[in-house]
Amino acid sequence: MNDLFQNTIYFGMAISIFAYWIGSLFKKKWNYPLMNPLLIGMILIIAFLCIFKIDYETYDYGAKYITYFLTPATVCLAIPLYKQFEALKKNYLAVLVGIFCGCITHVVTVLILAVLFHMDESLMNSVLPKSVTTAIALGICEEINGIKAITVIGVIIAGMLGAVIGPTLLRILRVDNPIAQGLAIGCASHAVGTAKAAELGEIQAAMSSVAIVVTGLMTVVIVPLVVNYL
């Protein structure tokens, strides 16, 4: 089966788009948090590759071109931020303090889990940058001698959890302020969570976009300091 799709640029792209389309149909049919098109799409792709014994390199040969759209898609998040710039100016101190608290919580949570589950140093270092975008997370991982593959998995899980259960968790905790909602999702779940925040409203999307950038900058400083101190 690998030979059939080897060097076929359209295979990875086609299966990715088709899987996401199926996920979108699931979302329209059953509007539950777990019916996230990204989550459903990931499950379908993994199942397809496993059933037909297609290796990841064959799939990624075409699928990697979809990732080229990640940068312009991320830049588009500046549009709701521009529209809500006045709200950001009025609440800039609360925004910065909230994101800083979120970054500290990320680090402390991982450290507690590392102690409870007796993680070795390299595994702990790999999980610490989980809540920032992949590019920043990999840079931090390399600096603190983590394992890049584990870091990528951590980033994916953080993003998907934020997109799938984030809005429900906010409702349970009665977090009704749209600024707080956006900051919470963006700080914990980077770009994947921000895509979900955009469904909640323009203010949530704008604040989540801010949280992505500021969380990345703060994490670049905080995580290496904590690792060096330990």
Short description:
This protein folds into two domains: 2-64, no CATH class; 78-229, no CATH class.
Question: Topology as H/E string?
Answer: HHHHHHHHHHHHH
**SS elements, strand count:** 0
- Helical segment count: 13
How many domains?
2
Q: Let me know the average pLDDT.
A: 84
Q: Classify the beta-strand content into a percent band.
A: under 5%
Chain-wise SSE layout:
Layout (H helix, E strand, L loop, with lengths): L1 H4 L3 H21 L7 H15 L4 H8 L6 H6 L2 H6 L1 H6 L1 H25 L4 H7 L6 H10 L4 H25 L5 H23 L1 H28 L1
Structure description:
The protein has about 230 residues and is an all-alpha fold. It is about 80% helix and about 0% strand. The protein has 13 helices and no strands. The N and C termini lie far apart (about 50 Å). The mean pLDDT is about 85.
Q: Could you name the key traits of this structure?
A:
2 domains; 13 helices
